[in-house]
Each structure stands twice: as C-alpha cells, then as structure tokens.
Amino acid sequence: MTVAASGPVFSLREIPFSYHGSWFGFSPVVAEKTYAEDVHLVSHQTGMHPILRLIPDAEAAITATPHQLTWNDGDGRIDLAYESVDTVRVRGRGLGLRLVAADPVLTPFSGPYFYQDPVDGSSVFTVYQTGRRYRITLLSGQAEQLGAQALRTAERGVVLSGAWEIAIEEYETARAPYASTDPFEQVVKAARAEFDAFAAAVAPWRSDRTPAAELAAYVLWSATVRPAGFVTRPAVLMSKHWMNKVWSWDHCFNAIAVADGLPGLAWDQYRLPFDHQDAAGALPDSVTHSEILYNFVKPPIHGWALRHLPPLPEPVDTYRLLERWTTFWLTARRAPGHELPHYQHGNDSGWDNATTFDTERVVETADLAAFLVLQMRELARLATDPGAAARWTEQADRMRDALLAELWDGERFVARSAHSARTWPSSSLLDLMPIVLGDELPEPVRAALAAGIERHLTAFGPATELPASEHYQDDGYWRGPIWAPSTVLIEDGLRRAGYTDLADEISARFRKLCEKSGFAENFDARTGEGLRDRAYTWTASAYLILAAAHERRSST
Questions:
Q1: Among 165, 241, 290, 530, which has the minimal tally of Cβ within 10 Å of its Cβ?
Q2: What pTM, to 2 d.p., does this model score?
Q3: Rounded to the nearest 10 degrees, what angle do helices 500-517 and 537-554 cross at?
Q4: What is the mean pLDDT of residues 342-355?
C-alpha cells in the first residue's frame, strides 16, 4: 500500500475500483478466486457478473486511487471516474480502448445483446445475467461498433482510438439520452470530494500513526450500495468481489466502524437484517440484491454491538426486534429441560468449520450462551417496563450461571451435545470467546481464558485454531487463520475483564497486520499473508474500530 497526496493507491487485484452507492465496480476479479487479464466492469445486481472487458490497445500500467482509475503506457493514457452511482466517464488521450462484452455468447436465456439505439445513437448492451442495460454514449472522438444486433457467438462492443471520451451507464429499461456539461476534471474533483468527506467522518483521527486508515475507509465507502432488490437500506456489502452479501453478524462491525461520524449509516447497517426477520424472530443468514437465505442463522452478537453504537433513533422498535431475535434462541434453540441454547451447525456460529464442531454439529457452546447473556443485559437496559427489565436481568443471570455450572470443567469451557450429556474440549479459539462477558466472569475463569488466548497469539494476532494443534491449517478458514471479528470481540472482552495489556497487544498486532497485508477476509496466522477475498469490509472496519480506540486512549 502506498499513500500519496491524492489518497491511497491500491492494487485492483486486491480492491475493486467503485463508488459509494454503486452496484458495479471495475476489477480483474470476475468470480471467486478467478482473475482475468483485463479489467472488467463487474455488476453485483442479481449476483456477481462480469459485463464488459476494458482492453487498452497497448500494454499499460494501471493506477487506482479512490477517485480515479488510470491506464498509462508512457505515450498515452485512459482515465475513468464515477460521475454518479450508475454512471462513469472514461476518456483516452493517445491510448485506444476496446470495450467489449465479457461473454461472447448470446442465447435465448443468457448473455449480452448489443444494438445501436436509434433515439440517440448510443451503443447499448442488454444483459440477461443482471437484467440491466449498459449504455455507452460517445461524448467526443470517434467510435467503431462491433457486432451490433448479432445473435449467438460474436464480439460485441465499441472500439475507441485517438482522443475520445464516453459515458457508461447501468440502468433498467429506459432513460433520457445522456447529457452532462461537467468537464472530466470536475467529475474527478467531485468524486474525490465525496470520498474525502466520508474518510473525514469515519476516521477524523487518522494520521501517520494509522497509515491504513484512509484505505480502510475507501474499502467501506466503495463497497456501499444504494437500496435495491432485497437490500432495503444503504448497505455496506462484505465485498464487491464474490463475498457481495450482508451476513447477519458481519454488519455489526461495519455499523460500529462508521457510528461516530455517520450514525445514520450505522443504524442502516445494524437494522438491515432485521428488515427480513422471520415469523419465528430469526434473522436471515445473509441478504443480497436478489437473495435472502434462512437455512442458517448467525450468532446473536447484536446486544454486544448495541453497546458500541450511538443512542437509538427508535429505541422502542429496536427493543422489540432485539427481543424477538433473543426469544428465538430461547424457544426454538433450547432443547426441553435445557437452560443453554444450541447451534444446529458451525455455520450458525459464524465459525463454519471450527474444530469445536468436529465431534458433533448440533451443539451447546459457551460462546453462544455468553453472547445471549450480553444480549439479555442489553434488553434489560432498553426495557421501559421495570417488570420486563427485571425478567431479562433474571434470565441473563440464570444463563450465565448455567454456562459456568454446565460447560466450565474447572480449567476450560467445553461443548456439549444438544442430544445428550456428552461434552468435549477443542483447540479452537471459539471455546475462549466467553471472554466477551468481561468482569461478569469469576476471576479464575477470566485468568484461564486470558492464558488460553495468549497460547493462540501469533505475531499477527489470535489464530482461530491453536497453532500447535494437529488440526491447524494455514488456509483452513476457521481452523487457523486470523479473522477480524474474533479479534475485535476478544480484544473488547479482555479489556473489560481487566487484561488491558493483552488487549493492547492484540490490538497492536492486528493493526500492524492490516497495515502490512491489507483487508483480506482472513490471514495466515504464521506469515500474515492475506487470504480469500482481499477487500473485506469487516476487516477494514476492525482496523478502524481498533485504531480509533487506540488513538482515543493515546490522547488521554
């Protein structure tokens, strides 16, 4: 990562070039772990779909900043900038461009159809995969069309050479001919001002001591989409790569990261999954443009998250929604006669393949009980009825006591089958997550959990599987790599448990990891290498959360 006066410069192979509110971006990443040679316009409506290839007519170096994307071959250049959420401007000076359909095959049910619009002479793709149109309007210079009205397999697109400028739009069925009087330089200036305002709001404390803060802000800003489809509010997707959804615990970290500077956006993040709460009170597993999944849920960290958010704009409504979500766990997820709730699969916990679930999958775990204790404490705080507050306090006390009596074996927390009394330990960091209860835990339990967390600590942060374990895998998802959410939750719990030195060390190591390796979905715990999706918003949010807190502590 390089920081320049014009803002952070980043690699398109790691972070897509996009714009706050837009459903498309520009990237060579065209599918999960799939990298094309050329930059593509990639849309995230109805999925992840590469739409157009941008092919300069000479090999050119690419430079990406938050406000402009540039190809430069030394003799000529192409510049691209967003004019609005659905429109980009592109210009070339001495460097030509082939702008062609990513998919050359048109069938009755898939692919691109390409034609010249007789109304304004623009070149239009209508693409089955997204159900949207992509219009190219020539603003200056000359353009040659390829494959207009062609059927079946053909190259379709526009060839630009010399000095030229175009606008590209994504829209539904029809709109007025493109018209803009703003020169390209003004478009770039306006885009830069939009990002600068966002960065100033979410990271006003940034300085040379926090060198990744501005890029973290860009990852959040550029991954935000406007309401569309099932996305009912402005939403920070987990990524504008293939992880282009909102999962029902990821959103909490993004809400916290923007809360101080943009409380409205924070509440939109927090509330979005609740817009799809089902009749049982459960939140969906995930929400994206054209899909809501309910086959799994995610852990109830929402009470914990509320502690880190600004005052509620709708306290009564939020209480009701959180109450329904909590009641779901207390009814649908407690076996008869059991005090402790259970997960039905590792996916419910968010730690999909953690070794805690190796023995069985339908399991009562200590992390789940701890999260619900915090959530019931929050309901007691929010309740306007003293009787309801007392009931939630009593239920929280009872679950905390059951957690300690039934899953603490004197040295560690164990998991228990929801079908039997069988218990087992594991070498997963998940078993240490009850540290989120902080000073609610007896001191010997806190001390044992802190010691266990230290054993998981590598040079870069807490590994999700004990590095000495036979089950540890460098790229094992939740069986080794370092993840942002576990790091933030543990750091916060340790701090509230009185282990501030260890919390400080974890914060420092994770922040340095992000400054070294960016904002990947997770990281190799031994080397610090970024793994999987490389532009993950909850990782950027975790950096902003930890960096902001560190800066506050340093200034007092």
A1: 290
A2: 0.96
A3: 130
A4: 98
